[in-house]
Write a structure and sequence with these properties.
Length: 313
């Protein structure tokens, strides 16, 4: 499917009543450290605490009345689970969420709080998929993929659209990459609304399937990812991969201590709470400072759903 400028504009109009147009913040001190002008798009202030609300509500709004009656289902260890549960609640439909048993308790609680039905399974992709297929067979619910879905990708792209609306002269936008929904949406938004803005991704070295896939020119699935950035453990999908391959300039890999120090910098200097996955984009910029010297850079802070009982500092 070709995602056009009009697709993205229509998506933004459709989801506007259900999302926050999140603030864009800056920090003189972080600018000094980076040697560049940074504009942080704060999706940690989005409903349910992460950008994923955008894609989830867009996908749900596109369902037929018949589909809505039977509900929606997905598998997710965290943010998409919450986003889908809340989006379903806003449309008064049932959400069935398959979550690995080791998903953070705070995220399971949030899903239940939004009225989602949590079905637990073993903590591996195979168990997630088999359990999900069973749920779909029993309920007739529509499966919505957390990122490998064009409606979800278009929804995620609206964060960068809003950023570009405020700052139309960015040299770069940097976003984290896990499954690639946010990154591919961001790349499409830049391509359609600010073609001179290049898109770069930050990725944890311990979960670098996107970097490997771009290097090889084919999808390399994640094998046993190890990173504190728990939102970035998933592998790219075929839809996100093809967009990223065509529209993203580069992926910068960062070490765990670089993620933690970038996260700490944001907490200390900007006085806002972000989860480790959000800090990956800033960590990528700081890692290759020379490349970005003197430039204007948008950074997407993807979310703030951090487990406060388990902080890395």
């Amino acid at each position: 499917m070709h995602i056009s400028k009009k697709n993205l504009l229509d998506t933004h109009q459709r989801i506007k009543p259900y999302i926050h147009n999140t603030p864009v913040l800056s920090s003189g001190l972080i600018d000094q450290i980076a040697g560049a002008q940074l504009y942080f798009k704060c999706e940690n202030f989005q409903k349910m605490g992460a950008f994923k609300m955008r894609g989830a509500i867009n996908a749900i709004l596109q369902l037929s009345d018949e589909q809505k009656k039977r509900g929606v289902a997905t598998h997710s260890s965290g943010n998409f689970a919450q986003a889908l549960a809340l989006s379903a609640k806003l449309q008064a439909i049932q959400a069935y969420i398959v979550m690995p048993e080791n998903a953070p308790e705070v995220k399971k609680k949030a899903v239940k709080g939004y009225g989602g039905q949590v079905i637990e399974c073993e903590a591996n992709l195979e168990a997630r998929e088999t359990t999900l297929n069973k749920v779909v067979a029993e309920t007739g619910a529509t499966f919505l993929h957390p990122y490998n879905d064009y409606q979800v990708i278009q929804g995620q792209g609206t964060a960068a659209m809003e950023l570009i609306e405020e700052h139309d002269d960015l040299d770069y936008i940097i976003a984290p990459v896990g499954g690639g929904g946010l990154l591919s949406g961001t790349a499409l938004a830049a391509c359609h609304f600010s073609p001179k803005t290049k898109v770069i991704a930050g990725e944890p070295l311990g979960a670098d399937d996107a970097w490997q896939s771009l290097e090889k020119g084919e999808l390399i699935p994640q094998a046993n990812p190890q990173t504190i950035a728990d939102g970035l453990l998933t592998s790219l999908g075929d839809k996100t991969f093809s967009i990223i391959r065509d529209y993203v300039e580069k992926i910068i890999r960062v070490e765990e201590d670089e993620i933690v120090s970038a996260m700490r910098l944001i907490w200390e200097r900007m006085k806002i709470i972000v989860e480790p996955s959000s800090a990956v984009a800033l960590a990528a910029l700081l890692k290759e400072k020379d490349k970005f010297k003197g430039k204007k850079i948008g950074i997407i802070l993807s979310g703030g759903n951090v487990d406060l009982g388990n902080l890395p500092f």
